[in-house]
Amino acid sequence: MDLLPGIHDLIAEYCECIDEDRLEAWPELFADPCRYLVISRVNHEAGLRQGVMYAASRGMLLDRVFSIRRANIFEPHRYRHVIGPVRLKDTQNGVAVVHAHFLCARIMHDGTTTLFASGRYLDRIDVTATPFRFKERIVVLDSDKIDTLLAIPL
Questions:
Q1: From CA 123, how far away is CA 54, in angstroms rounded?
Q2: CATH fold of 4-141, please?
Q3: pLDDT by residue (tens digit) across 6-29?
Q4: 25/13 Cα distance (integer angstroms)
């Protein structure tokens, strides 16, 4: 079975949920339990598990969205992701290991656009049922300097 179309659809939907401010739909792209981690490259390569954003369940992802919408105070902004290439590295026991590179531009409320983040996604995707769902998404940032305005998932 060709898994790439379903994998591409999941990754595209992930980016659209974030970029089009449909954050309430974002947690539904994850299995439960799941793992979501945003971490610097240096910490990841050192085997450290600390990150700047972490969730271990769909409920924790829902809490993240709730806090973005109702509790966190930050300057209004949006993201635009550019993804590629997407590489299927392995598949075992219904889980696909997928890597992809990304660039993320941040668009501020006044229209100012800057390159906000770059890095790679290290994914474990449940491919036993459609639509596919993330079991794990580790966002490895190229830079060790992480903007304090990181509120929205990458």
A1: 14
A2: Nuclear Transport Factor 2; Chain: A, (3.10.450)
A3: 999 999 999 999 999 999 999 999
A4: 9
